[in-house]
Every structure is written in structure tokens, then in C-alpha cells.
């Protein structure tokens, strides 16, 4: 598998050096492969959105590297280099009401990227591109002359997707793209995202807190807790064989649409005290099984390896 | 079982410039003492409007309760004068809203907000109310109540704020608690804590809960019975097992199969319900769901389906249960969970008056 992105020791601190310093993202490393969907889960405030935003340069990283196709995203860049990079990486936001300019027509919202990057040869070409994009996301060409307020939440999220696709990106960061939508509409948007991925070979970073949807859409899932990545594994493995106690607690908290399961489910509570880490424990990401990484000490690593072998 | 609430043929409309929006169109249900009834459905299905009507919180104008009865304690709340209603609201029936950030007064200390209903309804003195408020905070799991009572809402996290809202709602030991999406804005771990808290308190004070949500996982967790709403009507009700293991209405099938379970593999496409909710200014003739349903029969576009009864507790409003209707296959995800319910009749019968 070819790596599209490599995140190495990424740190994002806010209010650095002040008493109210927040380590929103604290030294995390992972790779994203071409054509895959990587899910990122965790509770609010764990740093999952900040990770996404730092990757796309909405924040300047405090430390660490984000390599996109082998090239560092952060650091000095000429205008031209930035333009090129911005085209390759796009974002879909959570709130479809706040992320579309209410004073622009749909055609202008979608074509904004096309204009900036000069992707259309003529006015006619520009409109054709807009129509095509609208059709790709399941809307029709008559919608191009309307304003965002004329659309429902699900339709707006489709517009957000069309806008992201307009500049033909390789990589899309979707930050809670379905959390604000109704159940039946969520399924429509997720199906659309999967379809587009197949057709265009897109790579996604899917940030969410709805774990059943994340499992459904992702190839691999990373779990974050207080700015750290604590576990990273292929999605089936993570659900069947979670190793980090926080992942276990998170999974045990999801209610499933099955009354019998719900009657027997018991919630596990996570407390960071269980680790009893000391200074010379060298807590870091370790590969317990191929592709299954856990943030742990040397001692825990041995234990996790044992449990992993017995469960398989 | 004792009925605490009995809603009969409730109609709620909003008079707008564009015409009369018939948000709730003939809803019948009841609530038993100490049970939890979940109401599910998509946005605009009328679930929030129904419960707001129970509390008489529909703004008038433009809204009004057009028709029907809400029987509570031998009285019809739909016709009660506002002065009388004030004595019930917050005392015998109370409500928790979705957003814990906006349902508390940001300029008032927490302690005072909890004491308010105690002084107004329970006629406690200030000292007694203060003592009781501190007890309530401990009851909902907040430590250090004396210090906490002097704080303002912004000094609490979302989960803590929802706990405070619950404390206020339960201050007067209400007979009915309406919870409108109380955990939607919260994280899974916090959601689990709040649900556990609600269940524990329900046992202690024997409150009946109406729980509105669109998260079917939460429904499976909290509900004793479930009512599925679509287009301002209840299209199916039953016990939680009947709804999850033996659903009969195509809309319920759609809801159940649009959410992936943890076993759904990545290749199966989710079965999104196509289209958009019906226009309630001109509600469709016949079955409101027919336009979006692949199971629609010719009669669905002509005539509204009657209510059929599948068991003592299971009611379905769909022509598919008519004896001449063709047999249909429900979607795969529904079929996988389906099992025979012991209380089912030999075949569906037309429901009589009242549920």
C-alpha cells in the first residue's frame, strides 16, 4: 500500500508558554494510505478535530511534520506551492448551515475553487462543471441558481461535498459530516461519500463520534484520548479485539439498536490511573499485531501481546 | 397497569401565511405509571410538537391544539386554563430539552435555579429549598453541592449541565417527565452516564418518561414501549421487542435499516429512505409514507390505512396488514433480527377504539 500522508510527531499547543496552555494534539504519528478511509474517534475535546485542522494547515503546527506525497505541508511555501497543495486537500465541515455563504448562489459557492485555481476555460465550461458536480452529489442543475437557505440539511451537506470535489482533490478531511443530520439522511450522505470514493479513488479522514457509522465507513480507525492517539487498528480488529482500556470503555458505551444486547451490556469505566506509568516507562505507540498499534509501556506491551494471541 | 396519561385523537396545527400546517394529525397513545415510552421519527414528524402540546408549550398564535383530549389525573389538559396549567407544569409534568447550554439561565446561579420550582410548587421556605437543592445535586452525581450552587452555568461542562437540568426537572417528583433528545448533544460516554442516571432516578421516584430521540440504540436501551411517528401520525407502536424484532410498518423498516449495526460489513449499502418528509400544509392523500415507500400499494395513494392490531400491545397503521394485501419481504437488516413474538394474534385484526 502506498502512503499518501505521513503524520510524524505532530503537536498542536494553544497558548504556548502561558499558564492556560492546552496540549490539544500531543505528539501523534500515523500514516494514511492511498484510497483508504481512516476514521478518527474520541470524545469532545480529545483533539480529533484539531488534528484534522492542523493537517490541512488551518492551524500552524507547534511541532512535527505532515508529509503529503512525501512533501511537508507545514513550513515555508511560496504562493504557487500553496495553491497546488490547497487543491489536493479539501475539507467537509460539520455544520451545513454555517459552512455555506448565505449570500452566494450555489453555482458561485461550488465554483469558488474552480475560479481561484483557474480550472475553467470559459464561462460555459465553468457552469458545465457546476452542473456536473451537482449531478454527482445527487442534486440537479436547476439548483445552481438558488441560495443555501432554500436547501435542507442533507442537501446542504451535498453542496459542501460538491464544493470540496470541485478542485479535484486527492484527499478529503470530513469533520463530523453527518452529526448534524437526521438518521435517514445520514445514510444518504454516507452512501454518497462511499460511492464517490470508489469512482474517484479519494482518500478520506473521517472524524466523528458516532462509532457505528465510523466502523461502517472506515478501513482503519484511530482512537484519541486527551490529545494522544491511544490505539490504531483495522476497523474489525478494533471492534473485535480492543486492547487499550480507553477503547474498551468507549466501545462499551455505545448503545446498539438491539434490546437484548442492551439488557446485557455493561459499561466499562476508564480511569488513566490504571496504567501507573513511571518516568522511565517509555510510553509510546507499539505494534502489538501487524497494523494494530497501541499506546503503551513495555510491560503493557507484553501483556497486550499475550491477550492478542489468546483471542485470535 | 395504571394509566397516568391518555392522549386521544390529538390534532395540532400552525396557522402560517402559506396555510395551515397540520403538524400533528390525530395521535392516540397512553403512558403507564413508571414506564418509558420512546417516540422516534425524523425531523418534522411531529414528535416534539406532540410533547410540547402535552405541556401546553405550543406558542399561540400561530400554533393551536385543534382537536382531541389529553387526559391527566382525570383532567383534560387540552382545555385547562393557563393558570391551572402553571400548577401542573414543572410540578406534575416536567421537561428536559436537547440543549443543556440554552435551557439554563446563564445569569442566575445554579442553586437559585434548582430552588425555584421547590419554592414555587412545594411551598418550601428558602432554607428548606436550599437544603433540598443540595440533596438533589448529590442525587444527580455532582460533588461539593454547597460550592457548586454558587456557580453559574458556564462553569459546568455539557454533561454536568444536563445533570442540573435533570435535577430541576425532578425536583418536585413529577408523575411524567418528557425528555426531548436529552443526550443528542452529548458524547457517548457522557450519554451513557446520563441514561443510567435517568433510569436510576426513574426507579426511585416512579416517574413515567416520554423519551424523544432519533438514536435507535438509545431507544433499545431505555424504552419499554416505542411509538414511531411519521408525517404527524403514529404509524406503529409496540413494546421495544416488538418494534425491533417484529416491525411491520415500512417506515419502521426504513429507520431500522438506515443505521449500520456493528456487524454490518462495509460492502452492504445502507438503505437510506429516499425523498423528503411530506408537506404538512397539503398532507398527501392516503398513506403519507406511500410516496417514499417501495412497498406502497395502489390503495395507499387513495385511502388512509386503518389501524391494525398484531398483539395486545402492537398496533400498525398500514394497508400491508390487510388480509388481501400481497406478502412482502422486509429489508435484509430487519429480517436478520426478526423473530416470532409470543403474544401475536393468529392474524392482524382491525383495532377498536382507543389504545
Could you characterize what this model shows?
The complex is a heterodimer of chains A (312) and B (355). Chain A contains 11 helices and 12 strands. With 312 residues, chain A is an alpha/beta fold. In chain A, the strands form 2 sheets. An 8-stranded mixed beta sheet of chain A has the order 6-7-8-3-9-10-12-11, with helices on both faces. In chain A, strands 2-1-4-5 form a 4-stranded antiparallel beta sheet, with helices on one face. In chain A, strand 11 and strand 12 form a beta hairpin. Chain A is globular. Helix content of chain B is 29%, strand content 22%. The chains are: A alpha/beta (312), B alpha/beta (355). The interface between A and B is large, with 36 and 41 residues.
Keywords:
heterodimer, A: Rossmann fold, eight-stranded mixed sheet, four-stranded antiparallel sheet, 24% strand, globular, B: 355 residues, alpha/beta, Rossmann fold, 2 domains, 22% strand
Give a summary of the structure in a few sentences.
The complex is a heterodimer of chains A (312) and B (355). Chain A has 312 residues and is an alpha/beta fold.
Tell me the layout of helices and strands.
The complex is a heterodimer of chains A (312) and B (355).
Chain A: E1 3-14, E2 22-33, E3 37-41, H1 48-55, E4 63-68, E5 71-72, H2 79-88, E6 89-92, H3 106-116, H4 123-136, H5 153-165, E7 171-175, H6 183-200, E8 203-207, H7 211-217, E9 220-225, E10 228-234, H8 235-240, H9 245-252, H10 259-264, E11 284-289, E12 292-296, H11 298-311
Parallel strand pairs in A: 3-8, 3-9, 6-7, 7-8
Antiparallel strand pairs in A: 1-2, 1-4, 4-5, 9-10, 10-12, 11-12
Helix pairs in contact in A: 3-4, 3-5, 4-5, 5-6
Chain B: E1 3-16, E2 19-32, E3 36-40, H1 47-54, E4 63-72, E5 75-76, H2 82-88, E6 93-96, H3 110-121, H4 126-139, H5 145-148, H6 158-170, E7 176-180, H7 188-205, E8 208-212, H8 216-222, E9 225-230, E10 233-239, H9 240-245, H10 250-257, E11 308-309, E12 315-316, H11 332-337, E13 349-350
Parallel strand pairs in B: 3-8, 3-9, 6-7, 7-8
Antiparallel strand pairs in B: 1-2, 1-4, 4-5, 9-10, 10-12, 11-12, 11-13
